[in-house]
Amino acid sequence: MAALLNIQITKKVTVTCSLEESIAIQVDQYAAFANVPADDVVNKALEYVFSKDKDFQQHQTANPHGRASAGLRVKKPIIAATGAKRGRRPTLVKTSLEA
After folding, report:
1. Could you give the 3-state DSSP secondary structure of residue 75?
2. Region of 63 on the Ramachandran plot (φ > 0 left; ψ -120 to 50 alpha; else beta)
3. What CA–CA distance (Å, rounded) separates 93 from 99?
4. What secondary structure does DSSP assign to 2-65, as a single string?
5. What is the tens place of the pLDDT at every residue in 23-61?
6. From CA 11, how far away is CA 31, in angstroms rounded?
7. Closest CA to 42 of 62, 19, 22, 73
8. What are the residue boundaries of the structural domains of the chain, listed by start?
């Protein structure tokens, strides 16, 4: 049995959104079924809906630069400081004098 969605890996941004618990479970199940990351399932499902919704397509044509007032919260990539070392932070240990 093949998955309905054909998912290809592309450039992505990280966003924060909330899903109903039952939908989140189904996303994970579909990802396991299709053997792809859950993010790709959400992306492809939204792409599919946008391609099928004729009213939304007309709205996009009429408002090419339109932006919702409550848009997705896009996370900016973290840029490491010059010379910063990667790895774990040192663990602080209490001495008997500090206790």
Report:
1. strand
2. beta
3. 10
4. --SS--------EEE----HHHHHHHHHHHHHHTS-HHHHHHHHHHHHHHH-HHHHHHHHH-TT
5. 999 999 999 999 999 998 999 999 999 999 999 999 989
6. 18
7. 19
8. 14-75
